[in-house]
Amino acid sequence: MVQCFIKRDKSKLTFHLFLCLSPALMVENGKFLLSAKRTRRTTRTEYIISMDADNISRSSNSYLGKLRSNFLGTKFLVYDTQPPQNTPSSSSSALITDQTSRSMFHSKRVSPKLPPSGSYNIAQITYELNVLGTRGPRRMHCAMNSIPASSLEPGGSVPNQPDKLLPGPLDESFRSNISFSKSSLDYRFVDFSSTRFSEMGMGVVSCVEEEEDQEEETSFRPLVLKNKQPRWHEQLQCWCLNFRGRVTVASVKNFQLVAARQPQTQGGTAGGAAAPSHPEQDKVILQFGKVGKDMFTMDYRYPLSAFQAFAICLSSFDTKLACE
């Protein structure tokens, strides 16, 4: 996994992502990758994501995209300035635009419309109502509209994305169409919460074009990530996840994401049963957790990019009025 850490500045409402240059958890030095600034509005919260550590604005040439939440902080949309490649959502008929997304949060379908520049919806994050409050772990699902579920299958790949992290310009390495590969890690306990999570059908963008678009949508299944279920530790009396030393402070923000089981397509098991688990689907793809005051670790692997992983982690910082 690629090991990173996030520094939060509450006074400036900013977040900075760094690549770890040392195995130590509490370090002040690292390679700067991305930054984000939170802006609160009447009905939503936005996080502007940039490659510039100081100039974090949509007007900057370093602007990469943004994360937008609904009023309750339970649903988030991730926008990229670059369109996803070779997916149904890369066509104009399947894209949720920045302008229409405000009224389409609960809709499965959108009318064909060419999105404005820099407003390509590449992911949707949904948090479940948490009946246990802060005593248990949050439940979350992430629909990655630009990543096919087949990317985790043998021989699978993500369009225009290398299988391994290769040397190259930083601005190319952290767009939504890139990633890497490495080894595995992580341990430690964390407070989380549980509740039953509804199926993520409402989060996946679909097309309204006739048979051609429906066939395309059937053949392309976006990768869906879900939080790994924690276990109750009797001695510690808390919900626990194994972060392998990368997380040291219990927090409701901490999480690990794995691939959700994909239902069988036609010709497979009847009744839409889940497909057999593949080893890649059991691996932790993204993990995030607290290690100190305003310090958090973020570790991710293929098929996510740093931009996508950072955006997902930013959603954990937002207040969730309906979840806790």
From TrEMBL:
Question: For this chain's UniProt record, which GO biological process terms are given?
Answer: regulation of DNA-templated transcription
Q: What species was this sequence derived from?
A: Raphanus sativus
Name by which UniProt lists this protein: Tubby-like F-box protein
The record's InterPro entries line, in alphabetical order, gives: Tubby-like_C, Tubby_C, Tubby_C_CS
Tubby C-terminal domain location is 1-319
Taxonomic lineage from the root: Eukaryota, Viridiplantae, Streptophyta, Embryophyta, Tracheophyta
Q: Which family does it belong to?
A: Belongs to the TUB family.
- Cite a single Pfam family from the UniProt record: Tub
Instruction: Classify the source by domain of life.
Output: Eukaryota
